[in-house]
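Q: Here's a chain of 394 amino acids. Please give me its 3D structure as tokens.
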Amino acid sequence: MQTKVKQLFSAMLAQLGLIKRDSQRLSAIPLTERLKVALSAFMALFIVTWISLQLAGTGADIVLLASMGASAVLLFGLPNSPLAKPWSFAGGHLISATVGLICSHLFTDLALMAAVTIGIVLFVMYIFECMHPPGGATALVPVIASTEQVLGYDFLLYPVALNVFVLLAVALLLQKFWLKRDVQKPAKHFDPLHLHQDQSPLKRLGLQPEDLLSALNSFNTVVDISEQDLEQLYHQAQLHAYKRKSGEIRCGDIMSRDLLTIGPNSAVAAAWQLLRKHNISMLPVTDPQQQLLGVVSTTDFLKNLQVPHYWGMLRHVNQLLLKNRHNKQYKRKVAEIMLTKISVAHEDDHIAALVPMLSDQGLHHIPVLNTQQQLVGVITQSDLIAALFNSKLS
């Protein structure tokens, strides 16, 4: 009996949305990210209100639209939502305000005026592909104000256009430089890494972007998720399913531990000789505490070649092999050519985390760090292939 009561109570909470069973839990978002979003909304609304006050005329009745608060929630809290795209935001407010203002001049009955306004606003949002819920509130501002006075068409410029464009500009800047979120670009059938038209390795099998887009367009209501987000969600679900099926194979289980490293102040020629002697293509660069500073690879030696032909390249490479202390190439330091922006794994990471890096990013070696951020191993494509093969056999 007690178990049934608990199940009934849990079902009731889930129905009310207090328990998330089949949707994203907002509490799963890191606390630091939630604080940054809240601070972003604070800064945006403060700037919009301050600028509007500075530019307000002496007879201004409305300085800030209440719907800007709802838009801020969408722009910062749901930035990847189709409802929060720049056109949806700007068009949703400006077109809705225009409809509401026209209706306030055409009708005198408040109930009829409000109903017609919202009906037209929804239909127009469908036509112009600018669905933005707070725009409905903006449309009702001239409708409600008409009970005392009919607003003029300057309402579209101030406060609507001013509020909209200032908030949009501030939101785009905060998204890029504070929240570090770039505006999503349409997916392209092009691999920028290898400069060919094929899909990246992870996308060649299974669901394709056009499959996801077709599924989205099959709904007869607005689905609040973009095709790019749905594709990323699908790949994350695939990786999660693989982790569940393959067991707990960690990076620390398959990495190479007997490492060759070099210091940042070592000569470039010494790094080249190590790569050549041990027949490897990547060399980690570490400090005395084994903190990873960067990597140097055979590619780094060839990137800066300024030679007109094949024989010139051979001369450049041969200079690296000469043990001449006065040779310019020999005196260069590893720190001058090493790559510092590198993808790394941690020894407790599941091997599924390696798949996107070694397939779509075109990496051949991944440094592995421990909890103290010290270099403890390296994983190659061969290591991952062997691990995947062995997991299938077991």
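Q: Can you summarize the key feature?
A: The chain has a mean pLDDT of 83.
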